Amino acid sequence: MRAFAGSLLMLLILSLAADKLSSQAVAPATSHAVSPAEYERWKKDLSNWGRWGKDDQIGALNLITPAKRKQAAALVKEGFSVSMAGDADTVKAVDNPNPYELKMLTIGSDQIAVNYHGIAHTHLDSLAHINDNGVFFNGYKPDAETVLKQGHAKNSIHNVKNGIFTRGVLIDIPRLKGVPYLEPGTPIYVEDLEAWEKKAGVKVTAGDALFVRTGVWARRKAMGPWLRGRAEGGKSAGLDPSVIPWLKKRDIAILGSDHPQYVSPSSLRGAVHDFALLYLGIHLFDNCDLEALADAAAARNRWDFLLTAAPLPMVGGTGSPVNPIATF
Description:
Elements (H helix, E strand, L loop, with lengths): L1 H25 L9 H10 L20 H8 L7 E3 L17 E6 L2 E5 L9 E3 L18 H7 L13 E9 H5 L9 E2 L1 H11 L8 E5 L2 H8 L14 E2 L4 H7 L3 E4 L13 H10 L2 E4 L4 H10 L3 E6 L9 E3 L3 E3 L1
Parallel strand pairs: 5-7, 6-8, 7-9, 9-10
Antiparallel strand pairs: 1-13, 2-3, 4-10, 4-12, 5-11, 11-13
């Protein structure tokens, strides 16, 4: 009887082991691939259209509540501030086809001109920047000819005239990986973002302005300019399209990086940048210089701070050059 019971137990153990091995064999490998069909579904399933009313024009900035501003103000312990803007670049290069133009009118006055969208200049994108077949955030569909004559009647940067005042959080992916900068084309996944949160002891919460450092400007300083962004052959480290549901889940108010957020090349070109603006209603800080901020945060081992910024109040504008400030 003992021998029979022992044999039965051994068979049971072998059966359970076989089941475990079988389940491991058929378990799908972790994949970050986002199909075009899935991306299309997200446009409906993750959309913030109508969340703050049919007439809303500021999108996720609604998440910056008075309570959030008070929380952000309480982060100021030293009164030490650091800029997140790159200097106005007047030198034409492969990654700066439209440099700032500075014309001296007299020895005491000047004129400045800039085509600020793109991958070179620090700026804030409004919700009137990206459209899909002429439709912008919250279903705004303007007449193209009218816009070309008068600017945008809705969603323009003028809606941010009163400025931005909230908690900022820096996620430093090169520092996470122990490198000075990410190589062009390196994707950043949710696992990377959450690994940094664990390492740094910080968590991205609703109403935050999230800044993700890839090290663009550190690499450019070391290696020189290179072709980046959406251009054919352009290569940029950045957020993989698979992070889009995470951005919605965390309810961030603003997204910023040292380039326009997305990884390139990608089968879904510019996905994070475009989806954030058009469907999540997240204003974007493009092309921030996060090097000084990263150094300041590392010196203090503090990765959250008060963010303040104010764009030019251009009625009808699609964005504005801007100087975001972090204060510790």
